[in-house]
Design a protein that fits this description.
de novo design (two linked rop proteins); mainly alpha; 181 residues; 2 domains; 6 helices; 4% strand; two-stranded antiparallel ribbon
Length: 181
């Protein structure tokens, strides 16, 4: 499979191309399996499945073709979160500028850039290696968020939102690492 991998929609189900990865799945995933792997209530959304099964085939349905790392849902989510937190840290005290603020900005961007670098290596082993680095940075972000909440820089509501988003992203990365073929 090369860059021309496309998704095939099967009867009674569909898969959003933004939730797929080049060469990441072999044949069939049920939503029950995705739920078991992710452990999330909305794991069908996390895994990109609505119902039923799906498969990858060459030469079908141009609108679902993965053309770049920008088509990866893990990239889109991590990029969005990095931008949000970059803006949010602008309100942190000046005393945190070279400490917590800088660490949050670096760790959140590290997730995104490692996804891109792994994708750009065109090797399953390299993608998995960089996805694992991204997963580590995802966990690092959750610790930074806890510090922000406990130091009073994030409200409980903001903390819960970002922590949940990074938890979901971590599960998506883990599924990607396990299933990338």
């Amino acid at each position: 499979m090369g860059n021309d991998v496309k998704l095939h929609k099967q009867p009674g189900c569909w898969l959003r191309s933004s939730h797929t990865f080049k060469e990441c799945v072999t044949a069939h995933w049920s939503s029950e399996f995705a739920r078991k792997i992710t452990g999330a209530k909305l794991s069908t959304e996390i895994a990109g499945l609505e119902t039923g099964e799906w498969s990858i085939e060459n030469g079908m349905e141009d609108d679902n073709m993965i053309e770049s790392y920008r088509d990866l849902e893990i990239y889109k989510i991590s990029y969005k979160l990095a931008l949000e937190l970059h803006e949010r840290t602008k309100t942190f005290p000046e005393t945190e500028r070279y400490d917590l603020t800088a660490q949050i900005r670096r760790a959140s961007k590290s997730i995104t850039t490692n996804i891109v670098e792994g994708y750009g290596r065109f090797s399953k082993d390299e993608f998995k290696r960089f996805a694992r680095i991204s997963l580590g940075s995802c966990h690092e972000m959750q610790v930074h968020l806890s510090f922000c909440k406990d130091l009073g820089y994030l409200s409980q509501e903001e903390y819960e939102y970002y922590n949940l988003e990074y938890e979901k992203l971590g599960k998506m990365l883990n599924v990607s690492i396990q299933k990338w073929k």
